[in-house]
Amino acid sequence: MNKDNARGNRIDPALWVKPEQFLSYLKYEKNSALHTLNACFHDLKKLVGFVNAAQLSWPVLEQQHIRQWIVSLHSQGLSGQSLQRILSHWRQFFHYLCHQLQILEINPAQGIRAPKARKKLPVVLDVDQMTALLRNPDNHEKDRKGSRHEQFLQIRDYTMLELLYSCGLRLSELVWLKISHLFEKNQQLRVLGKRQRERIVPVGKKAREAIDLWLPFRKSLAKENEPALFISVHGKRLGNRQVQNRIREYARKRGVSISLTPHMLRHSFASHLLESSGDLRAVQELLGHKDISTTQIYTHLDFQHLAAVYDKTHPRARDKKTGSDDNEGQLPKDEQIT
After folding, report:
1. Which of 93, 94, 116, 210 could crosslink 162 through cysteines, CB 3.0-4.6 Å?
2. Which of 65, 95, 289, 318 is catalytic?
């Protein structure tokens, strides 16, 4: 490498591509979700920081630089999962420089692996917890005694939970639902998933009943021409953080001990459906997963459930402390050799 060209001020300024250009490409060409764009922005900000500190420019980067920077981030305490995400975004950015702008000849992040991330199984609620959480507020006198404002919040939050669990929606998918996405008498829902991939999901009976409760409240407060299915008391579309806070508060009032998130309801939907049907491909379609390997995480949860049932019920699996295996390996008395 020419040392004179290893400094950023020695490189043609036209070659210094700002990450914002790549983010625009992701947004308009690849239809990437806002959450993905935000994560990518912060990951590329780290990359730019390293490049500036080393006084380098894109065309002179090599694998050794990327490897050193990943090691540096790891030493700062970033998890393997975070490093894998960062490397993925860096690889995508360099691929863009190679193939779209043709500034680079090779991708310096290609072939570099982050430390293995410890696999975490999704947290799910069991059926009893879901039953307690989703009891219809209209069936309880104390819930009907509240003001119109309180009833609005109760019915709206209840309906959001029912749809998240009934349809296995992501948070962003719920937030961007429109009235027009409901059809066939509210029995089906059009969902826009990641990268604007569309899927049609069935709406369960309880969720349809919740929607029927919610729509009159929504109609009374929605601003003119507001298409969102779920709105705030001010008549405008709810934001992600508002939904997260409301669901956490709703669960707390229903006695759910864990800090509930929308994605836990999606996990519970998938786990319970797979446990009942065993149809992994159907669960993949309903969740909107592009790759079935993403859905296979729920088979581990299903196996955990089966293993727990086995441990509790099979006579050869019981702990000796229960007394069930005290005579393990012995013949019945009437068959023992004397």
Report:
1. 210
2. 289
> 29 and 160 in one domain?
no
Q: Does 74 participate in catalysis according to the annotation?
A: no
The verdict on 156 and 232 lying in the same domain is yes
Residues 6+ apart with CB under 8 A from 89: 39, 40, 43, 44
For residues 91 and 150, membership in a common domain is answered with no
| Residue 298 a catalytic site member | yes
What is the number of domains present in the chain? 2
Q: How far apart are CA 251 and CA 297, in angstroms?
A: 25
Sequence-distant (≥ 6) Cβ neighbours of residue 22 within 8 angstroms: 40, 44, 92, 93, 96
CA distance 263 to 129: 15
Q: What is the pLDDT of residues 9-38, one digit of tens each?
A: 444 444 457 788 899 999 998 888 888 899
Please give the residue range of the domain that contains residue 271. 127-311
Catalytic residue among 246, 266, 267, 272: 266
Residue 321, domain member (yes or no): no
Q: Does 91 qualify as catalytic in the annotation?
A: no
Q: Find the catalytic residue in 46, 65, 263, 305.
A: 263
Q: What is the CATH number of the domain that holds 7?
A: 1.10.150
Domain boundary among 61, 83, 99: 99
Q: Are 103 and 97 in contact (CB under 8 A)?
A: yes
Q: Tell me the Cα Rg of the chain.
A: 27
Q: Which of 74, 178, 190, 194 is catalytic?
A: 194
Active site residue 165: no
User: Please, what is the angle between helix 34-53 and helix 63-75, to 10°?
Assistant: 110
135 labelled catalytic: no
pLDDT per position as a tens digit, 199-227: 999 999 999 999 999 999 999 999 999 99
pTM over cut 0.85: no
The single residue of 89, 156, 170, 237 carrying the catalytic annotation is: 170
Asked whether residue 73 falls in the same domain as residue 164, the answer is no
Helix orientation angle between 34-53 and 19-28, rounded to the nearest 10 degrees: 160
